[in-house]
Amino acid sequence: MQQSKALKEGELFFRQWLRSPKSMGSVIPSSRYLAHAVADVVAWRPGQYIVELGGGTGAITQGLIDRGIPRDRLVVIELERALFEHLRLRLPGANVVQGDATKLHEILEQLGIDDVGTVISGLPMVGMPFEFQRAIIDQAFRVQRPGNFVLQYSYSPIVPIPARRLGIKAQLVRWVPLNFPPASVWLYRRTAEFVHASPGR
Known about the structure:
The chain is of the alpha/beta class. The protein is 37% helix and 21% strand. The chain contains 7 helices and 7 strands. Strands 3-2-1-4-5-7-6 form a 7-stranded mixed beta sheet, sandwiched between helices. The radius of gyration is 16 Å and the shape is globular. The N and C termini lie far apart (47 Å).
């Protein structure tokens, strides 16, 4: 049963990659090793929400659930229709939204959510236009309290964004060689200089 489910999810993921390779970070879904690595680093306390950008087939979300975060405290944003429909079926009780991550603040306002513990990005940032990278990073920090961090998982061995240009201090917090392809988990914080220069963000 589990093997059949994994095969179906892999097929869905691959079909989506064929349709829109630039919107997908890999040709296969993330593994449970990566999911648990991400979940291990997430900052969350009861009452808060965790936001995931680019839910894919729900592998990372399942890692958060396995950690013990209630489904109703998970917000999963997915732009692609086929993946969104899959996530709605796989994750009953979670807040699954078909939407644009560059409009995250608007999405959370509509949901009445204003206390976010961590934003997780699975979006393929490497090679994306700078304005897209900046929009994602700005939105991810805008919906959180000052001092919070953003997590990014990536299949790139180097920082997937131009960190200094974006006012970000990037730290590699997990390396997951058992994932295919091997993956890294990055933790982003705003630099003190950026926070000082951007009051009210």
